[in-house]
Amino acid sequence: MSTSQRIGSASVEHAEAVLVEQYPRLVRLAYLTLPDSLGRHTRVLRAHKAVQRALPHSGTAPGGTDDPDRPLALVRVRVLRAALARSGPARTAWARGARPPVPPFVWGLRLWPPAGGIDEAAQALGDAPAPVRAAFVLHHLDGLAEAETARLLAEAGAEDSAAAVREALALPVAEGLLRALRRPEFDASVVSARPTDLLRRRRRTRACWAGLAALAVTATVLTVRGGPTGPEVRPAAGPAASRALDPARLQRVSAEAWADTARVDFTAWPARGGRSGDRDLLRRALATWAAPGTAKVTATPGTTAEAPAGPPQLLYAGELDGRAVVLLRDGDRVARYGERASGSGGRTLDLTRTDEAGVTTAAALTLTRSADGTSARYLLAPWIATAGTRDLRAPGDTARALTVAADGVTAPAAVPAAGGACASWPVLELTSSARIVEKHSFVLSDLGALSPVHLTYTPLPDGPGAVQARQPREATGPEARAAWAPLACGLGELRGGAYRAVNVWDFAAAPLPDGAGRAVWSCTRASGWAGPGDVTVRLRPEGGPPQEVARARSTAACSRFGQHLLAGFRWRSPAGRWYLLAAGSRHVTGVTATGAVRAHAAERTLAAPWTGPEGAVSLTGSLAGGGSVTALDGAGGGRD
After folding, report:
1. Is 85:95 a contact under the CB 8 Å cutoff?
2. How many CB atoms lie within 10 A of CB 162?
3. Could you tell me what percentage of the chain is helix, strand and coil, using 3-state DSSP and rounding each to the nearest 5?
4. Cβ proximity of 568 and 514 under 8 Å
5. Does the predicted TM-score (pTM) go above 0.85?
6. CA distance 280 to 214
7. How far apart are CA 172 and CA 182, in angstroms?
8. How far apart are CA 316 and CA 269, in angstroms?
9. What phi and psi values does residue 116 have, to the nearest 5 degrees?
10. For 241-277, what is each residue's pLDDT tens digit?
11. Pick from 99, 185, 178: which is nearest to 143 by CA?
């Protein structure tokens, strides 16, 4: 290679300046390109390492580009090579010929991106191949042209860069999420951090010193007596694995810890249950988690079933309805082990994510279900003062007291039917202790998972031109109950998902044509533990069943990162006439329809006669202060 094709020291200094200036963007590129299977902590570390190692050395080749004065392109290529080397579909020369960069190691902290933003994008792009994710970032977020995006991917080692760009252009990602990631104040290099379990760290430190002392003694003895003459004995597992499987090392929290901490979540749950001292049961639970064998294992989407790296926290161990049950927490996961009380047969292991759980989302866990699936017992958080049940479909229903034992286990409570007619929808209504928050009641719904979901409600804006957004509130007041009643049975569609909360947002209301009364437009958002959520927009006419308008999956729409909303559909009035109905959220000041129906309204709702044949219609909403929003569809959201 000629000298002219190598980088001089001046160009390296220029590349360093560019890397520092563009550091958040480069971290965003690396994080979203890296595979979701790494987990958030490892993914954050590898993203930062990929960027920090992207600075070229003087005299190195410029990564396939003939222009040594393009340091940003060079740095991007090197970041992409490092990120693609950790992703299976795009095997680069680096990945084939050498080991990928070793990640930095952080002692005593777990890192993850703050809720929303980059983590929502990572989940939305999780199923796409790595080159497609990289092309999405380069084109949609960094603003590179399609040809430039393909060229950089090719230089980084992607096998079919043009195809990756085409697939990235077709990805259904919410515009609201893109707006959040493009904001100047958004910094992808910012992370949240929490300490690892402090007691575990202290035990490990003590064990390390004890091990070093034992090693020193052993070395002295061997020096004097010579080497061992018997057969070599190898442990079945490493020291860390042995500690994780030792029931004596399980973390246990004191009964009153929840009342004297600023972190009110699963970390504040004490160890409860009549068999919390049964080491044989606890050992079987830990061993099953490490090696399930014939046990039936289930995990909510996005939850890994891998064994814990260290001793988990014991939440419960007891015997209920002929089953022995153990609840364990490992970081952002909770596991439930079950077996027949008469022995170790019928083993089951269920896992769920619990990212950033709080007072409401860490308020209950399901212990057992009846054989016919009509009832369940729950373990309530220690900060729950009272519990009751009521029918979500009946807005005037009064909560009935639910008996709770001293260890937090409830009596059997009715759960929603898994199929057939939806005559009722039983929910839990819990009240927090005044030591946590005064007069705070909230509603949880059992969707068949280990953790019930938190139900909330966001009312209509205060009036036309409202500036302040209404915040979600608990689904306990008369207005919230009335809004949830006709939508309750729709929760059944969410069974089997990894959801933490479901919110109903009433974003618009208007009279219907032909004297059909008033209707409310609502967006139901089911938010997942990982960040992204699934949304359904419905029209709720007076005296009639809700009508579905639009849906979107893995989107930021109807969340704090997707507050601009527009939706519309073809509607038939009781008089038999067809109309185009559309409505927007509070910042929409006008709605325009083109296509099969051409109409305009200088407000945030539109009702236009649909006189021609059925056909495609495009809706655009004008936003206060400029910008526009397009109608929610499979991709959702709007654009500024």
Report:
1. yes
2. 16
3. 30, 25, 45
4. no
5. no
6. 29
7. 17
8. 9
9. 85, -175
10. 567 789 999 999 999 999 888 889 999 999 999 999 9
11. 178
